[in-house]
Amino acid sequence: MIYFDNAATTLPIYTSKTLYNPSSPHALGIEAERALRNARKTIASALCLTGKSSDLPAKTLSKINHIPAADEIIFTSGGTESNNLAILGFSLANQRHNTNLISSPHEHPSVLAPIYFACERGWAFTDDTNKGATLVSVSHVNHETGDINDLGSISAKIKKDNPSAVIHVDGAQGFCKENINLEDIDMYSFSGHKCHGPMGVGGLWVKKGIRLTPLQYGGGQENNRRSGTENIAAIVQMAEAAEYMSQRLLVNHTHITEIKAILLSLRDNLPDVYVNTLGGEVSPYILNMSFIGVKGEILVHALSEMGVYVSMGAACHSRKRVQSALEIMGFSPEIAQSAIRFSFSPHNTLEEATQARDMIIDAVTRLRNVIR
User: Fold this and answer.
1) Are the C-beta atoms of residues 258 and 350 closer than 8 Å to each other?
2) Which residues are catalytically annotated?
3) For site-directed labelling of 330, which of 107, 235, 265, 289 has its Cα 20 to 30 A away?
4) Does a structural domain hold residue 299?
């Protein structure tokens, strides 16, 4: 098996642990509460790439201008809930201030859907001119193409035009993989299973002073911002994975870049192959390619039968034609419909990349001959 669908989910690197309810007053509860507190500290360090990040260049560390406090971390069930809490929680808390929600049309559905929902309910509105924007939501790394947003420049420009604007970053594809400068960022979402933690856990960093209305109520956990007994075992595993990944960020980057280069050589071995990016800096963890003449869905299934697991870059609906994320970005329907997405992990090997490249050449050549 060659697994190149790590943007969908990574394989966990830590096994399950049994821990108790951190709200319980007895010794076992106190032990669990201590584990929860330590996990917050670990996540806060991973967010700013400090701690034991010995492989990070001094230049990178010198750019870190804000170190999150542990009590600014809210643990959730994953990236989707974190994005919803950031957008809906902020909209509800600031209804009286005529909340304006701004985002690009090719963000992840867990960003776009709550924006649409808030506007439909009259909690907020959208103004594409960005004038008077109250909350701007932007991805750290685009989930389709791997394009990295220059968060520092984007947030600095927005804050210059509107100092009161709040910047939320969907960091699902960037957390523990790309450098983060939190100087002008106010909220940052992350997901456990995108960085080799377990599914069903994630979090939201919220800078002090940002008002959020909780979306669920009960026992008042997470400083009354997200009620419900914390999933301690998953949180601890996520923190351990985040610490491991953030400490090896530069080493992983180098390794993943070498893997991606092997797959990029498909352009030299096959005609009519395109790499889909928006033209800026791109994360090595994601590679979106189009093989003209072969629909992405067909190629994904063909590769799956050969033991290579990737995903489609374009949404495929058999009954209803829906514009894909790539088309929204400006790519042609031909490019979008023939696109597939490779996404890599530090656990992938150069040998896997070479084998996958050869099998892709064989599959594309064979399918093109059949179609013709």
Assistant:
1) yes
2) 316
3) 265
4) yes
Based on the structure, what is the number of domains in the chain? 2
Whether 240 and 309 share a structural domain: no
Q: What are the tens digits of pLDDT across the range 232-264?
A: 999 999 999 999 999 999 999 999 999 999 999
Single out the residue in 203, 219, 247 at which a domain terminates: 247
pLDDT recorded at residue 21: 87
Q: Which of 247, 262, 280 is the last residue of a domain?
A: 247
pTM exceeding 0.90: yes
State the residue range of the domain holding 262. Answer: 250-371
d(CA 145, CA 360): 19
Same domain? 138 vs 218: yes
